Fold these 2 entries.
Entry 1:
Amino acid sequence: MDAIRTMLARVRAPGFPNDHFPGLLHLLIGKTLVDLDGNVVSRGYSWRECASMLKTARIDPELARTLDLNPDDLPPRDREKFWYVALTRFPVASERAKACADALVPWMAKAGIKVAQGS
């Protein structure tokens, strides 16, 4: 979990490819993630867990625009609910999300996380 938190902190930093944010959600929810030593750090999070992590990491709500959502149309006061609703409205398993995930893999490797083989 600490590796995921560290990686999410890097999402807020300059250099994160914002247009690949849908891919990040695809990986967090649907893939097994391992650290560089091969230790499992995630077997996939539920939407609620993912929303909680995005809130805790203070991910910019403007990234909802990369999901083709208007942040003004999402719950404004509760960030966890904001991200949960965004996740329910965006097709996380879509071809677009998969393509973004594939493009994000090198960035994630720099953050110390890889997608497990066969996941």
Note: The beta strands are 33-35, 40-42, 113-115.
Entry 2:
Amino acid sequence: MIKILFVCLGNICRSPTAEGVFRHKLHQAGIQDGYLGNIFIDSAGTGAWHVGASPDRRSCEMALKYGVGLESLSARKITRQDFADYDYILGMDRENIRNMKAICPPDQQCKISLFMNYAENCPGITEVPDPYGGGREGFERVYDIIDRGSDGLLKYLLAHYTL
């Protein structure tokens, strides 16, 4: 089983959106995620400010606009155990990468990378910007970036694994 963890700062905007969008794309491709499937996905934050909270209302509204539900997700903080449990730990920006590497055992750091490393058709976009302090336009942009990144990640996985 392939296990993927999407990570942002508080786990209420970018990483739950990535989890929801990627799960939606898997289902569209006929791939079931979860413990009974070939792939398991989750999301977490490097900070604990929002543990137990639902995703940001604006993220939920934007995702729902495209048929993606985030309402069942709740924020959690990444743990040391996650580095052992997950195969791919995908940070939304370089700050998330730095925060994860600061707590990740040295032998697990190879699992950490930027989510946008998998994206196609996103010239010049290497990070998913944090929309939290802004308006609707920021959430629209983030959804578009995550959608493109998810397409690339799915393409990568299909080329390298039997799902």
Note: Residues 83 and 151 are 24 Å apart (CA to CA).
